[in-house]
Specification:
The protein has helices spanning 13-25, 41-59, 67-70. With 73 residues, the protein is mainly alpha-helical. It has three helices and no strands.
Length: 73
């Protein structure tokens, strides 16, 4: 899996829509993160790690944690 991050100025929203629609026609998933969401660098790093883990689970390289182990008091 390859990840691509593009920073586009807010005044170029038409470019974002054009790129997004082009990618969707090719079957590529997009994730738009608004810079005004106050996502810190640490939070973004955790989000990236979580996404990578999901992809490893999806590909069968690692096993997910059973629900019974998530809420073990």
């Amino acid at each position: 899996m390859t990840y691509l991050t593009i920073e586009i100025p807010d005044n170029k929203l038409n470019v974002i829509e054009s790129i997004s629609s082009l990618l969707k026609t090719e079957g590529i998933n997009t994730l738009q993160i608004d810079s005004e969401g106050d996502l810190s660098e640490h939070e973004f790093s955790l989000l990236q790690e979580s996404f990578k883990e999901v992809m490893l689970i999806k590909s069968g390289k690692i096993k997910p944690t059973p629900v019974s182990e998530l809420w073990n008091d």
